[in-house]
């Protein structure tokens, strides 16, 4: 019985484990990605930055599409800089809207597909640099097998408890 509870706890822990993600992520035609960039807590004394650079570390450029930049998170605020072609590897942003370290980037793919491994950096007059990498948001959906194991463990635990209670109420005569 001791092993049963250990196995049930392990199954429940696996069902509740946070999902893992790997970069880069692939976008296909018709898909878009919005990244809310925040460089403000990366260095003491920041912002404003003297310049901000945004880039993509992958070399897959078979897609067509665009980069768009907005002064606030969630594509709010004024759009700044011109719309850029999707195949750039990095772009230096001088606009005051980016130099405060808080802005959003929209990547839209119109045809083909592109691998994205995004990063942003802010420079403090050559004294220091703040760098952040894009990480996908977690979606809490467990795998079907893990969920099945967790349910099976809970059902077995309930059956064992019921059996133990029944045996206490009606002990066998020996």
From TrEMBL:
Domain Ice-binding protein C-terminal positions: 141-163
Any matching Pfam family: PEP-CTERM
InterPro entries to which the protein is assigned, alphabetical: Ice-binding_C (IPR013424)
Signal peptide range: 1-22
The entry's keywords: Signal
Transmembrane parts of this sequence: none
Name under which the protein is recorded: Ice-binding protein C-terminal domain-containing protein
Organism field: Pseudorhodoferax aquiterrae
């Amino acid at each position: 019985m001791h092993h049963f509870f250990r196995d049930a706890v392990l199954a429940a822990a696996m069902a509740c484990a946070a999902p893992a993600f790997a970069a880069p992520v692939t976008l296909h035609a018709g898909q878009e990605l919005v990244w809310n960039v925040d460089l403000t807590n990366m260095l003491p004394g920041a912002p404003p930055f003297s310049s901000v650079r945004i880039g993509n570390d992958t070399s897959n450029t078979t897609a067509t599409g665009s980069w768009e930049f907005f002064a606030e998170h969630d594509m709010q605020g004024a759009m700044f800089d011109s719309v850029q072609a999707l195949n750039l590897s990095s772009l230096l942003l001088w606009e005051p809207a980016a130099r405060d370290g808080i802005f959003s980037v929209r990547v839209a793919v119109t045809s083909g597909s592109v691998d994205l491994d995004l990063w942003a950096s802010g420079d403090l007059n050559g004294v220091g640099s703040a760098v952040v990498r894009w990480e996908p948001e977690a979606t809490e959906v467990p795998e079907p097998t893990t969920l099945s194991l967790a349910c099976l463990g809970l059902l077995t635990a309930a059956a064992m408890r019921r059996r133990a209670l029944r045996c206490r109420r009606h002990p066998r005569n020996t």
